[in-house]
Amino acid sequence: MTVIYLDNNATTKVDPAVLEAMLPYLTELYGNPSSMHSFGGQVGKALKEAREQVATLFGAEEASEIVFTSCGTEGNNTAIRAALAAQPDRRHIITTQVEHPCVLNVCKQLEKQGYRVTYLSVDRQGMLDLMELEAALTGDTALVTIMYANNETGVVFPIETIGAIAKGYGATVHVDAVQVAGKLPLNMKTSTVDMMTISGHKLHAPKGVGALYIRKGFRFRPLLLGGHQERGRRAGTENVPGIIGLGKAAEIASFELKYTGREQRLRDRLEQTILTTIPNTEVNGHPKNRLPNTTNIGFKYIEGEAILLMLNKHGICASSGSACTSGSLEPSHVLRAMGLPYTILHGSIRFSLSRFTTDAEIDRVLDVLPGIVENLRAISPFNSDEADWLQGREEVLV
Amino acid sequence: MCNVYKAHIAHHKESTLHSETTTMWDYTEKVMELFYNPKNQGVIEASNEEGIATVFGEVGSIACGDALRLHLKIDIAEDRILDARFQTFGCTSAIASSSALTEMIKGMTLDEALNVSNKDIADYLGGLPEAKMHCSVMGQEALEAAIYKYRGIEVEQHDDDDGKLICSCFGISDAKIRRVIIENNLTTAEQVTNYVKAGGGCGTCLTDIEDLIAEVQAEVAAMPVKLAAEIAVSQEKATRPLTTVQKIALIQQVLAEEVRPVLLADGGDVELFDVEGDRVLVSLKGACGSCSSSTATLKIAIEARLQERVLPSLVVEAI
What we know:
heterodimer; A: alpha/beta; Aspartate Aminotransferase, domain 2; 4-stranded antiparallel sheet; 39% helix; B: Sufe protein. Chain: A; Arc Repressor Mutant, subunit A; GMP Synthetase, Chain A, domain 3; 3 domains; 3-stranded antiparallel sheet
């Protein structure tokens, strides 16, 4: 069965051009870039080129501001630890309730180590209140770490305003831009952000490679200690094929940024048609302020995993924040932070497109989805907010 | 760069799905079959037919992420389930478990249906992933709720004495956790979470659940010892010979005054059927009829008590 892949916020297909760029480094060009001989040296040269390609995607001043990592999680862990080490006297961190677990869980552990952490709330549309940020900032705030766009809803945060406010208190600003790279232009030359994380496999490079932007002059402390790779900022022999792949993917993404309007048009058609043809559906997240490729839709009165497995039968790949798919028993922390009612929480599906998504694929989803929702609603004992079983349970309807 | 790249796109291999059934959860074919083509979904409308009753039982809530309303059509004279239908809000395995349950219980007498355990439902499906066992528990509970409702047995909202709230996230009492530990021989808090969700939210009750597991295990281990001790004590006391009539009267009195009040509090009941020599034949009713710890009830709550109060040689048997 042909796959219709609409789960690009989870991971993306490796671009064929990226694979082709990588192949020599998995075969004949296996030298160590740190070696003295020119067999290794030629690999070092390719690495330098990849660093420049990634620096261009970041809109960085210098290629030396880029450190290659193994993934987004490593980038975020490294940046948070580095920020705290840079100002050891400060013991306060500000983040949000809707961050990725690789930020939230680090913060939770830091709380146990004596740090104070403020988790900023979001509103029903997934947006931050900058007054809350301003009120939380003190001279003790070492770090403000905030995602650029949310992986589940695609809601974009105003990172430059956040950065400007945080700078007023001397805090380091780190941004998790894993979902943004390749979808919105980055310009670190004029940015207020000190560090920014991206991950290769979200922009058509392979899994196992990422990059951390570290502003020139920032007092950086590495997480991994060892050899002098990455100018002492990330020890360990480089994942050369992965880095070459990320370089190529960054080069293509810089070019393709001009065409994200096409993705957005497809996303909007998918979203609008669902909202108009399927009753009791809602978009989760701000209607405008979102990534061009993401839509998170709540299908009331039915459960997400059931929808996903019905879609799966047609080869359609999407994801859900329902409890049954999260691996825990609670629905998505992001949707809960938005204060969505339980009628929506368990039945939310995320479709995330890529530049490879076609009109025909969107048509196919629109063909099968109404029937799936109708069948599952026919099985459900809840079919409207007026369902007798929901009465007296206002807390689930809010 | 651009043209080279576009040319590659034209040549790229299409991704295909090699296996439809391999998902994050390792569901059996039976689960997927009943999910894609569920049997007996829907409601049973109230009937005016002579001798026919309809009833439904519900369990779960939309907040918890799954809920089941089970509808039964019952032949009153035969005490038999003629038809069963379900309405389920929930995931793949919740829908499959509900459908399986309706298939299993059609044609059963209500007493037979009360003996269906969550494990029977999971077995019918060829097994469920551990983390999804709570779906089978939900089926068993809805069935029990429907039958109790039909029989007019109040399922008491356990008060603080015998139903302390353990998991406040999912509203699970110690009574429910104890039951699932005993029925499925669970040994870890993680298993308890998989079966009844308790501990799956904030996680603060996980240590309480571990304590409860240790407590139940200790009780189960101590059961034979406790029983022997009680028998020894009662044998010392009992010396007087009884006539058959005296024996039956005394048994009736002990059952009425000391045994039934305890069982009723748990939604169960017992009735004396016959006394043949030292064999006391009783029938267990209500919750006791379906409870897998009914053997323990028989031995500890009834037999030990009768041996102590009436005659040490008495043996109690359920009919």
